[in-house]
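Task 17 of the worksheet. Students: predict the tertiary structure of the chain below and write it out as structure tokens. Keep your answer in the requested format; marks are given for formatting as well as content.
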Amino acid sequence: MKSLILCLAVVLLCSSFAAADQAKTCDEEPESGFCQAYFPSYYYDQELIKIKVKINKESLRQDLIWNGIL
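Model answer:
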């Protein structure tokens, strides 16, 4: 019974900290700088002979590295 009460106390304590962090985050000023939004990138696919779209810039960079372009 003691372990159940202790476990319940820990859960309640953790949930109160999470709620406090969430409230603090919602009241903060927005940050400036780069965001991780939708930024399409375009590249030329030589095998398909057409321009293709890449959404994730990091995956485009990896493709260029693997193809020996970078």
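Marker's comment: The longest helix spans residues 2-27. The beta strands are 41-45, 50-54.
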